[in-house]
Amino acid sequence: MRITASPHFYCAALTMQKTTPLNLIHRAAGARMVDFGGWDMPVHYGSQLDEHHAVRRDAGMFDVSHMRVVDVTAPPGAPRDFLRYALANNVDKLKVPGKALYSCMLEQHGFVVDDLIVYFLREDLFRLVVNATTADKDLAWLAKLGETHASGITLKPRTDLAIIAVQGPHAREKVWRALPKSEASTRELKPFSGIEIANDDGELFVARTGYTGEDGFELIVPEHAVAALWKTLQAHGVKPCGLGARDTLRLEAGMNLYGQDMDETVTPLESGLTWTVDLASERDFVGKPALATSQPHRQLVGLVAVDGGGVLRAHQKVLTSAGDGETTSGTYSPTLARSREESTCPTITSRQSSTRTRQRVCARRLRTAVRMQSSAVGSPRDTASRPNLPGMRRNGSGDWQRKRGRFATSIVKRSR
């Protein structure tokens, strides 16, 4: 097992904040910068609310260059064999080049080391995109697994690359205007797929993925070309957005955040991620024996405010008929105009709960979550039957929709 690094590899021992290649552009635009896991990142450019609505209504872009691209290379067949063991989801599902898969990476007791996306590019090349705050830990874990379960595998952190996520109902059209040569290759690109495109500035990888519930592209480009791409996208009407809007968007979409909704103290079966674990196949993977014999006594559920009561944050108590739980993520949902949370709770059957604050106990609707997701990126699983919600109606597919606007909001069981 070898780990190779580009000349721009960041040393974890450095105490100064890391920066993306777009840092000076963010600062010149007046962005409010924050420390995000050791990275100097923009939280907003003036109005987090405007940025959120830009993504839901038009197109916004996020600098996600802090996330780590890792290429897994070896003789044909070896990368697949290695990832078949290293990941909880089954990479044998990836049969078409460019196809992507969301998966957790587990330690031996079934607890979550990280969640990631893996792309099948060739039989001798798979690409991982891992979280920024766990990147060094992930590389060390994969290298450890490689020493005992793979030979000839090379892990290459692609710190020479940068990533821009362009999201929203008009995101793809605006990317095509900014990169006209990309349209022919990506117009028929299916969700959760990517493609390498020849580009004058070097390597260009376009993936139809994201973290907002909206359609769009994630663009992986050489770091020397990312500033020009950012400015070109902005010139074509794509609004710069910070991490604040990214958090409210992903929570509306019911997407987990590592370090809050799951970590190395919980399993995917307790984190609303059972659907990402392949226990049915005969293959072995790290953590499988532990998961196969586990009996989860808690689950991640979505909470939606039904009586106001302010905005709930992480680590507040959730009162249920089966015992107390705790919020893992919480924020104000700009689209729903109410509080929206994720919470870990005992396995229960009641649809109602309450959350306790220092001021009052607030009613919450439990086990079901309003999940914002564009129809282009697929319907959420396990749509449940619910009575009418204010300002909403069912569409022809049975999903909830706002009576005005384009947002598809589905009521889904978060316990999967």
- Helix share, percent: 10-25%
| Coarse morphology | globular
Gyration radius (Cα, Å) is: 21 Å
Beta percentage is: 25-35%
- What is the assigned CATH homologous superfamily of the largest domain? Probable tRNA modification gtpase trme, domain 1
CATH topology of the largest domain: Gyrase A, domain 2
What is the CATH architecture annotation of the largest domain? 2-Layer Sandwich
Strand order in space, largest sheet = 1-9-5-8-7-6
* N-to-C CA distance: 36 Å
Give the C-level CATH assignment of the largest domain: Alpha Beta
The chain-level structural class is alpha+beta
Low-confidence stretches: 7-15, 349-370, 378-416
What is the residue-averaged pLDDT? 83
Largest sheet features:
6 strands, mixed
How many domain regions?
Answer: 2
- The count of helical stretches stands at 9
Number of β-strand runs: 24
Q: What does this entry look like structurally?
A:
- The protein is α+β, with helices and mostly antiparallel strands.
- The protein has two domains: 2-250, Probable tRNA modification gtpase trme, domain 1 (Gyrase A, domain 2), CATH 3.30.1360.120; 299-413, Elongation Factor Tu (Ef-tu), domain 3.
- Helices cover 19% and strands 32% of the residues.
- A six-stranded mixed beta sheet has the order 1-9-5-8-7-6, covered by helices on one side. A six-stranded mixed beta sheet has the order 11-12-13-10-4-14. Strands 15-18-17-16-19-20 form a six-stranded antiparallel barrel.
- A hairpin with a 5-residue loop joins strand 6 and strand 7 (112-122).
- Helix 5 (171-178) packs across helix 7.
- The longest helix has 15 residues, at 135-149.
